[in-house]
Amino acid sequence: MKAIVARDYGPLDNLVYADWPEPEAKGRSVVIQAEAIGVNFPDGLLVQGLYQMKPPVPFVPGMEVAGRVVAVGEEVRSVKVGDRVAALGNLGGYAERVAAPEGSVLPLPDGVTASDACALLCGYGTSHYALKQRGQIKPGETLCVLGAGGLTGTAAIQIGKAMGARVIGVASSEEKRAIATEAGADIVLGYDNLKDALKEATGGKGVDVGYDPVGGESFDALSRSMGWGGRLLVIGFASGTIPKFPVNLALVKGFSVVGVFWGDFTRREPAVYADNMRELIGWYTAGKVKPVIEGEYPLSDAAAVLTRVLNRGSAGKIILKP
């Protein structure tokens, strides 16, 4: 079969579209014929050796796949050949067929497309965990979402609204601000003079929950805009700059800085993760959340697509098709 292979750590251009051994279904594993493959920011970091995890080379990157089950191991009980499913893993997703542990496989109800299923896994899964378990957001609170035109940003807007929050989206361009508005943000801002703009937008009260996948100067502005008892969620650093935090701000403003490591959460608390996914699927079928799919591209274009994602040139979810 064909796959995207990282033969060594290095630039994204070093990725190759090449033959790769067929996966096998053994024990409690399932083999999925991919219909859609999700592209995520950490995928690009991983192949460059810039992520927390560093698998032995060569390897196939990719954590999300949706399609049909074509083989099951002898111990598999929850799915069968022919079922439509999505699966989440650490590696192996950028391939025509993917092996996944049974416990990571999510049966898909009718009406959930393969592309939307991929978006619901990592992008929406991250935002849901961030706002529900880490931010513990409450109806009527004010949520500020940085990177509001990207996948996790639009997910945070939609999930925040589903949980009853008033949402302020912050995005870098007119195109991305339009996406944030379409996603349901009550107020949409740019990054210029962000601290003053947030003060005005909150009537001087400050932000109850801040959602930051960007880092850098944007984090600095948001941290100075938090309200008393607020929760500032650290999602990632798409800007490329990990900010230094003056801890006296948390003291005098009475807010918490909360780390969000969704990947580790799915491994440490699989039952809670499964409950979250059931809630997300329910919101999807009820029309409360709807991923923005920016585009679908051939699997062979993975390097170019990842370059766009890492350069923050994408708006919404990007999908690869075998």
UniProtKB/TrEMBL annotation:
SMART domains in the cross-refs: PKS_ER
Domain Enoyl reductase (ER) positions: 10-320
CDD domains: QOR1 (cd08241)
A molecular-function term among this protein's GO annotations: oxidoreductase activity
Cited Pfam families: ADH_N (PF08240), ADH_zinc_N (PF00107)
Gene3D superfamilies from the UniProt entry: Medium-chain alcohol dehydrogenases, catalytic domain, NAD(P)-binding Rossmann-like Domain
UniProt xrefs under InterPro entries: ADH-like_C, ADH-like_N, ER, GroES-like_sf, NAD(P)-bd_dom_sf, Zn-ADH-like_protein
SUPFAM superfamilies noted in UniProt: GroES-like (SSF50129), NAD(P)-binding Rossmann-fold domains (SSF51735)
Name listed for the protein in its UniProt record: NADPH:quinone oxidoreductase family protein
Species, as recorded: Aquibium carbonis
